């Protein structure tokens, strides 16, 4: 006879509850005094959420993880939880633009920032001030997927006693583990590859307990951007297939890159495999690629970009990326040439998020869309 209690669900239960009751007032008081580690109220902690947090912390080789209701929920809680009035932030490489918009808002609270789109170590050294508290970056970068030397950034920051934070959404913990390179805080939009099915918005921070605890009490609990148990369950489901989805999407994006490479209406490909000044592999390991690839269209004007995008039949037009469905988008507008140049972005840039469809179908779609340019 096998005991009934020996059975275990292979899928985690969804703890759809707003609060947790305790058998005695003393125990409730203990839980309330330790809300960082004990479930009291789902805005702070919930077992369905904790289950995912443990997995992400382990994958990123961090001490702990907190999930948030969105990637921006995570990023804003980190930045506003760590940076004080009068302090300064440096952003490097192309950073997700709402993160920069958040930094602009922080000027109302006396926080200043410098935005260096190059990722050049000498420029970084020169931008450091006595008030610099945080260096925040992406590598590979949003839109062009340009990589910078993470280990060099960390060395410079730590020499000056400055915290480092990376938005690791592009890589997921499967392709890059920045904490192993010395980065202090890792942020994710789980909405992209980790969720993977375009059906949930979520975010995460991974760091040391000391850093996460400060963020937990200063911003996470008070901003209230907590992830619900049902959405946490969807993220856990996404994690189970992340590795196979990434492998398929990597292969498809590389095949599309090889097709675009020789095309007369493509002037340049943006993908880490095509980057000429990639950082040294020994100090910046990257275990693979994902399904993102950008290219600049020839001619690069807004009307040509519009004709190309409108002609696509398999690729849908929309924001976000990392789902099962292929997507295309451009930041190009009729009159934003200067703005794009300030962000170090070329004219005519089109970003593809390659999904899980048959790659030849996608290549045929691109081929026919080029004939409309
Ligand atoms: C989407 C995204 C975010 C924001 O995440 P949300 O879940 O949409 O709030 C942050 N950083 C990067 C690189 C992203 O792609």
Automatic annotation (TrEMBL):
BP GO annotations: transsulfuration
Pfam families listed in its UniProt record: Cys_Met_Meta_PP
Modified residues (N6-(pyridoxal phosphate)lysine): 192
GO CC terms of this entry: cytoplasm
Cofactor(s) of this protein: pyridoxal 5'-phosphate
Keywords, in A-Z order: Pyridoxal phosphate
Entries under InterPro entries matching the protein: Cys/Met-Metab_PyrdxlP-dep_enz (IPR000277), Cys_met_metab_PP (IPR054542), PyrdxlP-dep_Trfase (IPR015424), PyrdxlP-dep_Trfase_major (IPR015421), PyrdxlP-dep_Trfase_small (IPR015422)
GO molecular function (one): pyridoxal phosphate binding
Protein family: Belongs to the trans-sulfuration enzymes family.
Protein name per UniProt: Cystathionine beta-lyase
Source organism of the structure: Alteromonas lipolytica
Lineage: Bacteria, Pseudomonadati, Pseudomonadota, Gammaproteobacteria, Alteromonadales
């Amino acid at each position: 006879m096998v005991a009934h209690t020996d059975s275990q669900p292979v899928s985690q239960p969804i703890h759809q509850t707003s609060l947790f009751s305790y058998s005695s007032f003393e125990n409730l008081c203990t839980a309330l005094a330790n809300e960082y580690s004990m479930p009291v109220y789902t805005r702070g902690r919930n077992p369905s959420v904790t289950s995912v947090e443990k997995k992400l912390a382990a994958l990123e080789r961090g001490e702990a993880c907190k999930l948030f209701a969105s990637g921006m929920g995570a990023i804003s809680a980190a930045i506003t939880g760590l940076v004080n009035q009068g302090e300064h932030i440096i952003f490097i490489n192309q950073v997700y633009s709402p993160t920069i918009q958040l930094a602009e808002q922080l000027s109302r609270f006396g926080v200043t920032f410098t935005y260096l789109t190059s990722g050049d170590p000498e420029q970084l050294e020169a931008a450091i001030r006595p008030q610099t508290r945080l260096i925040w970056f992406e590598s590979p970068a949003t839109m062009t997927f340009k990589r910078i030397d993470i280990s060099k950034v960390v060395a410079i920051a730590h020499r000056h006693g400055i915290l480092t934070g990376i938005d690791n959404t592009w890589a997921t913990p499967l392709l890059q583990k920045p904490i192993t390179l010395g980065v202090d805080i890792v942020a994710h939009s789980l909405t992209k590859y980790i969720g993977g099915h375009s059906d949930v918005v979520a975010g995460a921070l991974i760091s040391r307990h000391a850093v996460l605890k400060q963020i937990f009490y200063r911003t996470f609990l008070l901003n209230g951007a907590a992830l619900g148990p049902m959405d946490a369950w969807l993220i856990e489901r996404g994690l189970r297939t992340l590795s196979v989805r990434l492998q398929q999407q990597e292969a498809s994006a590389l095949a599309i890159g090889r097709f675009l490479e020789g095309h007369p209406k493509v002037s340049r490909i943006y993908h880490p495999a095509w980057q000429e000044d990639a950082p040294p592999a020994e100090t910046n390991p990257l275990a693979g690629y994902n399904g993102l690839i950008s290219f600049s269209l020839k001619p690069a004007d807004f009307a040509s970009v519009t004709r190309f995008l409108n002609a696509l039949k398999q690729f849908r037009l929309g924001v976000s990326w990392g789902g099962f469905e292929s997507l295309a988008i451009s930041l190009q507008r009729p009159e934003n040439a200067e703005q794009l140049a300030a962000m170090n972005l070329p004219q005519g840039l089109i970003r593809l998020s390659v999904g899980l469809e048959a790659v030849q179908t996608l290549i045929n779609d691109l081929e026919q869309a080029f004939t409309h340019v």
